[in-house]
Amino acid sequence: MATPNYGYEKRQRELAKKQKKEEKARAKAQRQHEPGQDGEQPQPGADEAAPESGAGDAAAD
Fold it and tell me: 55 and 49 in contact (C-beta within 8 Å)?
């Protein structure tokens, strides 16, 4: 009986991980170039929070 080639199996797992990681990075880059396509809407509260905190600090002084 032949012995298992663990090095080959490990290399195949590493290649699968690398391919999956590249696919995720490609999908993330595509989402960044096309905002709002996947049903994601920018949150209006996040944009409004920064000016309010700055205006509140200036008014307190």
Answer: no
